[in-house]
Amino acid sequence: MRRGGVADGDGDGATPRYIAIKQSICDEIREGRLKPGDRVSSEAELVDRFHVSRMTANRALRELQAARVLVRRAGVGSFVAEPKPIGQMIEIRNIAEEVRERGHAYRARVIENREIRAGVETAALLEVLVGTKLFHSIIVHHEAEFPIQLEERFVLASVAPDYAKLDFTLITPNQYLTRIAPLERVEHRVCAKMPDKRTRVMLGLSDSEPVLQMTRRTWSRSRLVSHAWLTHPGTRFELSAAFSIDD
């Protein structure tokens, strides 16, 4: 609403102040003064810099997030979004290699990696008897400090006996498993869904942001050895597949 030539009550010109803030941030990105992964000014800093209300600053940041120019992480700040990564759906790729091939830094945060005994549900996942020794790991993979994948995996211990001893900040489960249990068969299933609270926190998602979840099962030497859920932020990630047709 305009009042006496002032748009939104936060400036002296015809251009609404939240638009001026958005234009300023986009100009900084276009000119290279802000790069993917860089933190942008906070609401409080924008209020001081542009002499606007906190509501106006918040609107500018929210709209840039909705346009996927920025990524906002609760309690941390707003950051320039990375170009949307593309994961390989058919190939079994090491996520650390994928990230580095895109020219970005990779790191992993291990939430859990321990030995368990299969209950009714986990036994069904790996088609084993209740009480079978398994390993359970939960790892958050980061690209340029952005959480890009939440990996939760169950592994048959008899095939990968050292799994729980490994430091998965130095090696990925994929690297280890493909080395000791050569792939014989792979099954993928992908769905879009709304995440639970735990997933939102680990991936730094807003309450309304969906995820892409790939369920991956792998076999080696005629045994089902791994069942994994690979969950990605739906607005910051896409999956692709390419294959050849033989005559």
Tell me about this structure:
- The chain is an alpha+beta fold and 247 residues long.
- 26% of the residues lie in helices and 33% in strands.
- It is built from seven helices and twelve strands.
- It has helices at residues 17-30, 43-50, 54-66, 95-101, 120-126, 173-180, 197-203; strands at 2-3, 6-7, 70-73, 77-80, 86-88, 106-117, 133-143, 146-156, 185-193, 211-220, 223-233, 238-240.
- Strands 6-7-8-11-10-9 form a six-stranded antiparallel β-sheet.
- The longest helix is centred in the N-terminal third of the chain and has 14 residues, at 17-30.
- The chain is elongated, with a radius of gyration of 23 Å.
- The protein starts with a strand and ends in a 7-residue tail after the last strand.
- Residues 1-13 and 86-90 have low confidence and may be disordered.
How would you sum up the major sheet?
6 strands, antiparallel
* Main sheet: strand order: 6-7-8-11-10-9
> Termini, distance in Å?
64 Å
* Count of helical stretches: 7
Fold blueprint:
Layout: E1 2-3, E2 6-7, H1 17-30, H2 43-50, H3 54-66, E3 70-73, E4 77-80, E5 86-88, H4 95-101, E6 106-117, H5 120-126, E7 133-143, E8 146-156, H6 173-180, E9 185-193, H7 197-203, E10 211-220, E11 223-233, E12 238-240
Parallel strand pairs: 5-12
Antiparallel strand pairs: 1-2, 3-4, 6-7, 7-8, 8-11, 9-10, 10-11
